[in-house]
Amino acid sequence: MDLSDQIAQYIVSGLSTGAIYALIGIGFAIIYNSTEIINFAQGELVMLGGMFALFFINFLHLPLPVAVLLAVASTTAVGVLFERLTIRPLKSATPLSLIIITIGGSILIRGIAMLVWGKDTHAIPSFSGTDPILIGTATILPQHLWIFALTVLAIAMNKLFFNYTITGKAMRACAVNKRAAGLVGIDVRKMVLFSFAISASLGSLAGIIVAPLTMTSYDVGIMLGLKGFCAAIIGGLSAGVGTVLGGLLLGVLESLGAGLISSGYKDAIAFIILLLILFIRPQGLFGKAETERV
Amino acid sequence: MRNVNVEIIKFLVLTLLVLVLPVVVHEGYLLNVLVFVGIHSILALALNLLLGYAGQISLGHAGFFGLGAYISGVLTATYSFNPWLAMLIAAAVVTFIAFAVGFPILKLKGHYLAMATLGLGIIIYIVFNEAVDLTGGPSGLSGIPNLRIGAFTFDTDIRNYYLIWTFALVAIGLSLNLVHSRIGRALRAIHDSEVAARVIGVNARLLKVQIFALSAALSAVAGSLYAHTMTFVAPASFGFNFSVELVTMVIIGGLASIYGSLLGAALLTVLPELLRAFQDYDIIVYGLLLILMTMFLPGGLAKGFPQAASYWRTKFRRGPSSDA
Amino acid sequence: MKRFLSAVCITVAAVSCASLSIASPATIKIGALLSVTGPPSFLGEPERNSAKMVVDEINAKGGIKGKKLELVVYDTTGDATKAVQAANRLIKEDKVVAIIGPSTTGESMAVLPVAEKEQIPLISCAAGSKITDPVKRWVFKTAQNDGLAVAKIYEHLNRKKISKVAIITVSDGFGSSGREQLKANAAKFGIQIVEDSTYSPKDTDMTAQLTKIRASQAQAIICWGTNPGPAVIAKNVKQLGIKLPLFMSHGVSSKKFIELAGDAAEGIILPSGRVIVSDVLPSSDKQKKSLLAFVKDYKNHYKAEGDHFGGHAWDAVMLLKSAIERGGETPSQIRDQLEKTSNFAGIGGIFNYSTSDHSGLNKDAFVLVEIKNRDWALVK
Known about the structure:
heterotrimer, A: mainly alpha, ABC transporter involved in vitamin B12 uptake, BtuC, two-stranded antiparallel sheet, 11 helices, B: mainly alpha, 14 helices, about 75% helix, globular
């Protein structure tokens, strides 16, 4: 097997993993864009999607589409509850308090998941079988195609929603300037709620789609959340193509790093990239530079 | 001037307490806990200088703690350096790293700074975990010698207690001095509004990096002390979880409160003991604690109780003065 | 000033609250340091369950020499600092006469200086050979040395005339200890490691590492880790169409692995404690009786499969029971009696301790099994 074949596989595998990061990153970006909050609990919402789906499929024996729908709905409910109980009542929202609250929230959700579902890892059956698909000399699984499809769908829907619907535009207005948005009659608190709801749905879908590949347990959320966040930062915290490209890039670089440099330091690669981006171009590869008013 | 005298009295009372406590507590389990409270106090203090006074978020401080511990550990266990020299080298290396990383990192603000420090902390953790030949990998590094002065070895709880708390008291004294000086005021100015501070002539950029480096150096010293007390270090103690614990200590104790840092450190070191009653539920209690503290008591306990006390006092006072 | 005073009061109050303990007269107190939560919870939880189960059974039958056995369990979450603090608490506060655990090699290495200094016998449930090599007076272990598992695999490779292997290990205590042993024993068996890859415990895709392995000259792949990593690797191997024989470690000797890996598990060979094949063992096997009893009891108690890891804690408690029955009351006497243990048929194997051997097992503690039709089959 020569080097170019190897690299082809690294790239293909990297794109598949990257798509997962991209989906999660979009969730971060949506909340950030409407509220300027980095939701550390996003990773746990991804985990919940997978765990709920597992519960509905394995214990209640519901058919796959129904289970998926219910899982997304349940996770969205959790996300909304979280926003209602913790974010909304917060009057003095310094970045530090918000970070600590969302970290506390992620610990809490993880703890409850651990108690309810135990510490075991569980598998969900793949959506359309496990026969590998050949792309040139590289292989991927059918589940990867589902992930790509969902990512494309997510971008398309985001674009439509944020650019062509009133609610979407209202949410973007909140991101630019909350006060001004409020002054023109936008219900800012409702927009914040929506952003959490949408993020939770998207995150949980990501969790469900990747569960057949990665298997799911109460602590899958931590690393996935962090990597998803890296993807979002690389993409400039945009809720669309930027973050997706960021995620794909991250996945490919990780994969190439693991194959060509060192498998042990693979995770370090993601965070080194994060640091480099933050140092050199904090607005991400595809974002516009921010100016701060004094 | 009255303020200075009050500060000195407070510090002396603390010193007395530290000296006398082991006599009350005897050589029991509690003494061992107090040793760790001492180490955590230095860490919480270091972080508070950065977080509470200068207002810069760090979610990766466990990394500096770990660097101090591992550098001391490797130099003494593998290369038989003199432990005191190793501690100095560790502090120097970490200060250098902090300066080098500080300049680019502290250009960032808010969430970006938080994520950058998070990333830094995780990278350091991964290095501890993967550089197996140097650090012993996930199973850790054992055989680290105790600290010694001549023939006097610090190998029991009581000796380590006094050693560590001596360092802690020195650190507190230095911090008190710093906070009440020009530099302290400049830090608070930066915290309130960096641009305004710059306008009146504060070299904000340099000062932030200096405090970052000081904070890192103190954490590294705490790390060295930890390594020689435990005679063992493992990566799991220096990960993201511990960074969060440190931030929690500072927040619970009270941002920008030196004695608050001690309080936070004491409480969080002791908390697992109190939570043992809850068994598996302790992680939930911890998460809830974080959320509730941030929502309802943002000044931390050091400021929270006096606030509550004065609230109740005005509630009970009848007459014209209670119309706040 | 007010802030200062309140800070002092709260600190003193909190610290003194931490030291509440009640002593009961006629009980034998043993302590357990287990990582019930945290990354190594797959070890600590079954260990705690087994320990509790066997302590309850002993007490139901009247205790040891008429005294009830009391088990004090502290959750270390896999952190060496917490393990040391908990060890100190067990010894100085709860005044236990012996300690079982910790669950991981790292924590064990952190705690053993405490055990040695305070002179309390410690029976570790972790696999690292270095816990009892060199021998420490007060430290024993019940988990089989991972070096023995490696030897079992290498012997098999010798029989199959395979000499070039690729290893892929997880970057936690279990995996890194296994990797150490794989490398240390390679020369002895004439094995050459051509590729040495690692992966993180929560990694979701190992195709990069496996692609590199596929391009190397490896004739077999040895994977050392615990669920879910090896299941992902098994699936990745199938996805990439790699036809090399795949070996796993005893870390996945549970039905859960077969459940997670699905079809990809077929044909995988691994060393395992006898507990998972207890029903197909010949009746002449000395451990069969205890094994079947353990599996049945665990299922009744916890509605789950009694596994390999839970067995370590079961062995530790039973070894202590045997030592106390043979005349151990003080920690020193217990230690001496433990050292004299011989031919004790436990879950992990048949234990024989001595002054020069505190790990007690040899390579017969493992059997080689192959996964056939979603079940275990002994490899001859």
